[in-house]
Amino acid sequence: MGVLFKNGTVVTASDMTQADVLVEGEIITLIGQNIAPGGHEVVDCTGKYLLPVGIDVHTHLDLAFGGTYSNDDFNTGHRAAGFGGTTTHIDFVIQPKGGSLHDGLNVWREKAKPAQIDYAFHMAVTDLRPDVMDEIPSMVAEGVTSLKLFMAYKNVFQIDDATLFKTMQIAAQHGMIVMVHAENGDVEASLTPALLAAGKTDPKYHAASRPPEIEGEATNRAVVMSGLTGCALYVVHMTCESAVDALRRGRTLGYPVMGETCVQYFFLTVDDHLAQPDFHGAKFVCSPPIRSTHDQGILWQAVKDGTLQVVSTDHCDFWFEGGVGPVKEWAEAHNGGDWHTFEAQDPTYRRPGKELGKGNFAKIPNGLPAIEDRMMAVWHGGVNSGKLSPQRFVELNCTNPAKIFGMYPKKGAIAVGSDADILVWDPNKTHTLSAKTHHMHTDYNLFEGMEVKGVPVQVYLRGSKIVDGDQWHGKNGNGQFVARKPNAPVL
C-alpha cells in the first residue's frame, strides 16, 4: 500500500497543476487526475499545494568556530529543518589543518550518524598542500563534487589567488564546482584592528570591518578566474549590489558562474538589527554582514531575474547568552575532550556563545539561526508580496539546488521516479516566527514576531511522514547520505 495525495495543486519550477500524486515505497510512481484510492492511504490536500521539499545547500552543523561550537547538530538541526519544510541539506566538511580531505570527511561522517533527514557534503579546503591538491579528484568517488575556498578569514582559512586558480583548474578537469566565500580578507585584516584601536568595539562595527566593496572586489576576482579556467563557480551568501553586479557581468560574458543569497539578507539591516543596543546586535553578526534596505531590493531583483539561482541559510547558530554553567570545565573539555559528553553530564551547561565578543566585535562567533525559517520567510516576503511566483519559489529553494549540486531528479522534483520528498504547504495558514516556538537549538530568533502566511503542514521524506502539524515523526539514523554527480549543469 502506498500514499496517495489527492486534490492538491502540484507546484514545480515550471508549472502549477491540479493533480494527484501516488507514492509507493520511497519514490513517486504516478502523477495524474482522479487517481483511484485503490487501498492506498489517502492524504486530502484540498486547498493545499504540493511542493518538492526544500533543499538547503549551505549549513554548518556542529562546527567548531570562534572559540566555541555551533549549537545545532545532525540531530537537533535536522529536526528544525524538517519542521521548516527542508529534508535535504549540504553541510561543509572542514579539512583539518595538517590533515587530509579524507580526514575531514571521516569526522563529518561520524557527526552525521544521528541524521534524521537526508544530507550531502561540500569539502571546505583549508590547507591546500601539493598532496591535498592531488587528493581533490578522489572526492568525486566519495560523492562530494563541490569544493569551498575562503577568500576571507586571514590566517585562519584564507587562501591566495594562486591557490584559488590552481584549484579551479583541477576542479574543471573533473567536473567539480568551486564555491567561494568572497570577501577580501587582507583588507578586512587591516580594517578590523584600526576600528578596535579607535574604540569602535560594538557589534555594529562588524559591518564597517567588512564593507560591501571588499565583497564586490573578491567576487569579481573569482568570476574572472572562472572565466579563465572554465571552472563552474558558485559564490556563496551574496549580500550587496557590487557583488551582484560582478556576478551579472560574468554571466553576461558567458562565464560559468552562479550565486546564492541567504534568507537573512532579505530582511535584516545594519541600522535596525546590527546596531541594536546592549549588545543585542551580536545576534545578527555573520559574514558577510547584513546590509541596507537598498541591497535588499537588489537581492530580491536578482533572485527574480535569474542573476542569483539559490536561496540558502548559512545556518550556524550560537547562544546569545551562552556560558551558563561551569565554563572553566568547558574549556578543559574543549581542549581535550567532547563537549557533547560534557553537556550530557551537566544539564545546566551552555557552551559559550555570542557573549565571547563583548567588548570586541571581532570575537563574536559569526553565524545565524535560519534553517527552520527559510522557506516560510521567503514565501511570505517573496510570494505573498508578488516579488516571486510560487514556481520561482520552488526553483530557488528546491529545484535549482538539486540541479546545481548533482542531485536532480532524485531530489528537487515532483516527478515519477523522484524521491517522494513532498511538502504539503498551506498557503493560507499563518504562523508567528519566534524563539518560543522554533525547534532550532538557540535562544533567539532572527525574525522574532514576524507573522508569515504560508507554512508546511505535513512533510514527507522518501515517502515517510516526518512532520504532521506540530508532531515530529522523524527518527535518528533514517537520514541518508546523498552521493552527488559531477558535471552538473550551470544554470
Beta fraction = 15-25%
Largest sheet: 9 strands, mixed
Number of helices: 15
Shape: globular
Rg of Cα set: 22 Å
Can you give the mean pLDDT?
94
Q: Class of the domain at 54-318 and 353-375 in CATH? A: Alpha Beta
Give helix % range. Answer: 25-40%
CATH topology of the domain at 54-318 and 353-375: TIM Barrel
- Which homologous superfamily in CATH is the superfamily of the domain at 54-318 and 353-375? Metal-dependent hydrolases
Count of individual beta strands: 19
Structure overview:
The protein is globular and about 70 Å long. The strands form three sheets. Strands 1, 2, 3, 4, 5, 16, 17, 18 and 19 form a nine-stranded mixed sheet that branches. α5 crosses α8 (212-229) and α8 (212-229) runs parallel beside α9 (241-252). It has a domain at 54-318 and 353-375: Metal-dependent hydrolases (TIM Barrel, Alpha-Beta Barrel), CATH 3.20.20.140. The chain has helices at residues 76-83, 101-111, 130-135, 138-141, 161-173, 185-197, 205-209, 212-229, 241-252, 270-274, 293-305, 327-336, 339-345, 374-383, 390-404, and strands at 3-11, 16-24, 27-32, 41-44, 49-52, 54-59, 64-65, 68-69, 86-94, 118-124, 146-150, 177-181, 232-235, 257-262, 310-312, 422-432, 451-461, 464-468, 471-472. It is built from 15 helices and 19 strands. With 491 residues, it is of the alpha/beta class. A hairpin with a 2-residue loop joins β18 and β19 (471-472). Helices cover 31% and strands 22% of the residues.
